[in-house]
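Practice problem: predict the structure.
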Amino acid sequence: MDLSLLAAPLKGKMAARYKDFLSTCGLRDEGDADVIALMTDEDFNIVACGARAGNTLKQFAVSPDYEGEGACATVLTALMNDAMQRGILRLFLCTKPKNRAMFASMGFEPIAATADAVLMENRRNGLEQFLASIPRHEGVCGAVVMNSDPFTKGHLHLLEYAAAHCDALYVFAVSENGSMFSPEERFDMIVNGSAHIKNRFVFRSDAYLVSRATFPAYFIRDEHDVDRVRSDLDIELFRSRIAPALHITKRFVGQEPFSPTTNAYNERMKELLPEKGIELVEIPRLAGISASRVRALVKEGRIEEIGEFVPETTYETIVRHFAANA
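Answer:
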């Protein structure tokens, strides 16, 4: 048996063989891996595989002929060792509930689970440390989770409304990459744009909220179910672990008439959050203002036109961003 660690994406015939093997095992290639581990037999047939995308391990598969022979553990160990050598010590994985015990035996702790998926981390108290870093507040506590790419007057409207309807407002800035602006820029835009709201407290979401990177769904065969599975896992983590720890009883969102995915997520929260005593408050979006419209103007180089859609602090950040990258 031979084990190889290959930089992604794979090329040519090997890429096709890899995707075929995943498909045979009922999995999908999400196409975002940094490194792929392939175990092959003496005839160079793939018998087991796994991958790492950032700090998330994913796409584990073992041929039925090799199940129970430690192939998955060998692949996982190789990926973990490679990550460690690259300075990536904190790792997540998301898998089917039936695999929970297997990965637990390899040192991964469950963080949240639904009927379709379980999220695990290679630290026993990672979520607890994240929550311990957040100061507690008295009275009615609310929460807003936002990507703010970039932070607009619509986002500000949501925060002002939410802060007026609770004693303390936790604002979680989504920390993952993949947006026009970096996580650091988006965090700063929220902090600076809402500085006048004295009962709002802004924190990075780390990997625990609304993270497509941390919540992969390669094991969901029907792609139509992917967003639902991710949403349910994110909502479960929030309602069962994060909200109780911070005494959050309200979550505020803006209406999303133009994004079917986000609207479906909001509708799912309406169903699931009240089961844990959390009220979902949905407020109308400000007419004509959206982050996607601002991004479109930025891409077209029409920076001077975005002033009417964003706070002055956001405008200044965008000008600096493009001056630095010119």
